From TrEMBL:
Residues 3-59 form the DPH-type MB domain. Its cofactor is Fe(2+). One of its GO terms (biological process) is protein histidyl modification to diphthamide. Residues 71-83 have a biased composition (Polar residues). Keywords: Iron, Metal-binding. One of its GO terms (molecular function) is metal ion binding. This is Diphthamide biosynthesis protein 3. Belongs to the DPH3 family. It catalyses: [3Fe-4S](1+)-[protein] + Fe(2+)-[Dph3] = [3Fe-4S](0)-[protein] + Fe(3+)-[Dph3]; 2 [3Fe-4S](0)-[protein] + 2 Fe(2+)-[Dph3] + NADH = 2 [4Fe-4S](1+)-[protein] + 2 [Dph3] + NAD(+) + H(+).
């Protein structure tokens, strides 16, 4: 496995909707890695268009916390169904 570069996580962009970090690749596409993969200890982001890979330098404790399901929304649905 050949690593193109090592990049600090602060230099990657986080897409909250897709829950992925991405970083521009020299080929014109971008390296991508899911936040769940980072939480599982994986640190290699891959470009889907070419064979390049980067190593993401990060501290697992500094990753955004998983969002909890919205409890109030579920309660509102139960109350509406009971009415």
């Amino acid at each position: 496995m050949s690593i193109y570069d090592e990049i600090e996580i602060e230099d990657l962009t986080f897409d909250k909707t897709l829950q992925i970090y991405h970083y521009p690749c020299p080929c014109g596409d971008r390296f991508e890695i899911a936040i769940d993969d980072l939480r599982d200890g994986q640190d290699i982001a891959v470009c889907p268009s070419c064979s390049l890979m980067i190593k993401v330098i990060f501290d697992k404790d500094d990753l955004p916390k998983p969002e909890e399901p919205d409890q109030t929304q579920g309660q509102q649905q139960v109350i509406a169904a009971a009415a």
